[in-house]
């Protein structure tokens, strides 16, 4: 099996508080995986621990067969954090995408060409010189994704990439991510709350709430018992009617 990520016996604490316990997880190359769970269930912590930003008290993580910290230094890993790292409101969309090539040895001209190509790929070529801060949430997200993918990473980690985006834009975003996987063979690991929207795009769901409660396909995940275990017995599944333009959407 060609593994992208292997998490072994992971336990993570903040002070005395155990946030993740006994997590074992294997993600294959080219898979699209969603990490889901209630607020505070440890999803961001799991991403950050996989990336080596948080040291577990027990356990280890391998990425592409290497210890995680070593893998991150190879430049084969892309990461889109939950909060935008872009603070300077004067930066243009092009500048933000260029950040993704900060460690590249390409010439300035080549970098700009590649950034313009990437902006085209994410459908933002007409906005290259716009201040990033003037773009809408969905447009900013496309540019941020451009920053992450410009260096052709083998694995990308996205923490709640569709926050603040309407359902239609979310669908086109997930379509785009799927295209990247299909065309470039990228492995995509994302934290998401959009169970309904991601359903048709993900290969695997990781149901997390301190422990790994579920690992499998979306169909098995959308099971009353699995959901109750993860979200509590009060959880309700709302399946929109077929007449609804966003039919098939399932909310928790
Ligand atoms: N730096 C920190 N120090 C102490 N506790 C923390 C820290 N970061 C997160 N926590 C706590 O750890 C738990 C898990 O947080 P985490 O951000 O991983 O959850 P999450 O599932 O990503 O949540 P959400 O869906 O709300 O983004 C929460 O109870 C949170 O308050």
TrEMBL record:
It holds the Pfam family ABC_tran. Keywords: ATP-binding, Nucleotide-binding, Transport. GO terms for molecular function: ATP binding; ATP hydrolysis activity. CDD domains: ABC_Metallic_Cations. The keyword Transferase does not apply. Signal peptide: none annotated. Residues 5-235 form the ABC transporter domain. SUPFAM superfamilies: P-loop containing nucleoside triphosphate hydrolases (SSF52540). The keyword ATP-binding applies. Belongs to the ABC transporter superfamily. PANTHER family: METAL TRANSPORT SYSTEM ATP-BINDING PROTEIN TM_0124-RELATED. This is Zinc transport system ATP-binding protein.
